[in-house]
Design a protein that fits this description.
C8orf32 fold; seven-stranded antiparallel sheet; 9 strands
Length: 196
Amino acid sequence: MKKKKIIAAFATALAGLTFAGAAHAVGPSGLAGRAHPFSEHIVVKAPTLAPYAFVRFCIDNASDCAASDGPATATVDTVALKQLRQVNREINGEIRPQYDTDGDDVWQADVSAGDCEDFALTKRRRLLELGWPANALRMAIAYTPNNNGHAVLVVSTSRGDLVLDNRTNAVRNWHDTDLRWVMIQSAANPLSWNQI
């Protein structure tokens, strides 16, 4: 029954999208950099399709994609920031990097080996277990400087949107990374995504 509800929710989100060519373009206008150079929080644009592998993940892991009534921004102090750094560092050390085979992108959490989205989903689960609000923990897709697609966890906090990335143990504000941002999970509805 839960799988049917998730599929129906994705179908509803899909029906609400308009398919403008620019929304799916991969080029200078399709891969926006910073929306506002000095914004501490990511500014989202039009709705877009969720990554297909994310849809499959949600069908199999309904609780990871459930809507929440909690805040979309976590209030943080030095203790909370230390916890973010600790989770980022621990998960980066616990998971052995292993890429999916071509054409078979599978998103998973709590794995011993995986690629970028598996690191991000595992960090999200760990932070949820520690009491962080679900709406403040969003998956995001970007490109690295060498044009590889990359997934990270973005934590929306009172000090800005902070990025937990498996390529580094540092936790940085989104605009202080080397990433070119593409899309992010909605804070209001975890099954919806927006362009950045």
